[in-house]
Amino acid sequence: MSAASNTMPVSTSLTPKDIRSILIGLMLAILLGALDSTIISVALPKMAADLQGINLLAWVMSGYLIAMAVATPIYGKLGDIYGRRIVLSNAIILFLVASVACAMAPTMPVLVAARILQGLGGGGLISVAQATIADVVSPRERGRYQAYISGAFAVASVSGPILGGVLTAYLSWRWVFWINLPLGLIALLISRRAMRKLHVPQRKRSVDYVGAALLSVGLSAVLLTISRAGQQDVPGLDNNSLRMLILAVICLAAYVWNARRTPEPIVPLGLFRIRTVTLCCLVVFIAFVELVALTVLVPLEIQMLTNAGADGAAWRLIPLSLGVPLGAYTSGRLMTHWGTYKRIQLTGVTLLPFCVLLLGFLDPANTGLMSVLLSLTGFSIGLQLPTSTVAVQNAVPHSDVGVATSASAFCRSLGSAIGIALLTAFLLFWLRSGAGSLNNGMSGADIINTLIGHSQHSIDDMDLSSLAPIALQSFRNVYMLAAAIATLSIPLTLLLRNEALGEKPPAS
Fold it and tell me: DSSP labels for 11-33?
């Protein structure tokens, strides 16, 4: 489906001032959701110690990520049916209620449950906000506005860990959740006021609750299986993971059967018959496999193989965090100027694998060169993000913009989960395999904790210097695998049509 099929009458009810007000409200909502993904990382060890739940530590992050991924396509559909304003408001309210539950959690299981609830709210913040951009500006102008939205991600990426560390050190880890209340209330008030002129669909459409339940259970089972695999020393499936995978296959197959018989499915299967939608969703999936995995792997490598502590590793990651919004801003401006997106996206997908591969052969102590490579890596990923989102929105009828945008957002979350699980699993496997010659019985996790200095493992008879080369080679293997995965985006982008972006905004 071409861009021409979704052009609509020009809106005259929204002035440039209205659009700026809406943008500010959307940026606050996105900042709220993105900040909670970064501010918590520094506080995790303290949470686990206070609540005596080190075994559930990974699920504080995974629970939020899984719930957010599952919720995004549902929010997109609800936004198309009931309007963006009411759906975004409800998402913010749910997010704030869950934040209170997180802050008051007496045990680790309660905290994990509250984080899952928080993820259900967070899934609507980013996807609905991005879909709202498509409601108020033309496809050609969306790149510029999507680039501004990326600024909110940059602020969250840089300030989140620092703010989380300060709150945890001087107040309590619970304040990383309490801080959401003033931010969320401001975002709620401004977004509701700014979005009051937005179009509300007059034709009420049914909600496929059966499909929503099947999709939620099926996707949750898939992501739980991936997360469990990533937490084992040897990549693979245990009996419980195998059962979850079977459940996922059954539920997703039932969803496909149901979607073919339902007038208004949560995610229309016909959406993926549009080549641009399928290709761009795959590209953004791979981009987030790389981005989120690198935000975990790079600080881990620095802490294991250099004298930099956790704070030093966080500062060294800033070039990557700043490179992404810079690339997004650049691609947005170029899309507005050229009116097309393929050349911009092709530049990003071609540059990314080379940067990741060079990171694998770089001495982690070389701060200057690592900063340059991380900046280029972030810039190349940033070039891909607005182009993919705008291309998807440009390729579908406006009635499906919300669910199409949410499908793209879901692929981002799915890529994040798979990237962490897959590459971490292989890192642990290669660490353990490399240490096998030492006959010390150490697992991959033992080696990581030993090199960072947090290990309880007996090291009386261990030559620690022999572990560093093993770790260096293991990280090199992981970066080479990540570069190979990134290379897949090149043929995908070459298959894209270089469609012109529409000049007219949708009717408001």
Answer: P-S--HHHHHHHHHHHHHHHHHH
- Residues 85, 323: Cα–Cα separation, whole Å: 31
Q: Distance of alpha carbon 105 from its chain centroid, rounded?
A: 25
Q: How far apart are alpha carbons 405 and 394 in whole angstroms?
A: 10
Listed in order, strand segments (DSSP E) in 40-141 are: none
Convert the pLDDT of each residue in 295-349 to its tens digit. Answer: 778 877 887 787 776 667 767 778 887 888 788 888 878 887 777 788 888 999 9
State yes or no: pLDDT of 495 exceeds 80.
yes
Q: For the domain 268-508, what is the CATH code?
A: 1.20.1250.20
Residue for token pair 């210097």 = 465
462: left (phi over 0), alpha (psi -120 to 50) or beta: beta
Angle between helices 342-360 and 318-338 (to 10 degrees): 160
69 vs 412: CA distance, rounded Å:
8
- Specify the pTM: 0.73
Q: Which of 488, 491, 282 is nearest to 391 (CA)?
A: 282
| CATH code at 14-202 | 1.20.1250.20
Number of Cβ within 10 Å of residue 57's Cβ equals 17
Residue type present at position 83: G
Provide the token pair at 419: 């990237």
Place of tokens 């084992």: 232
Contact of 185 with 62, CB cutoff 8 Å: no
Mean pLDDT of 417-429: 77
Which residue type occupies 353?
P
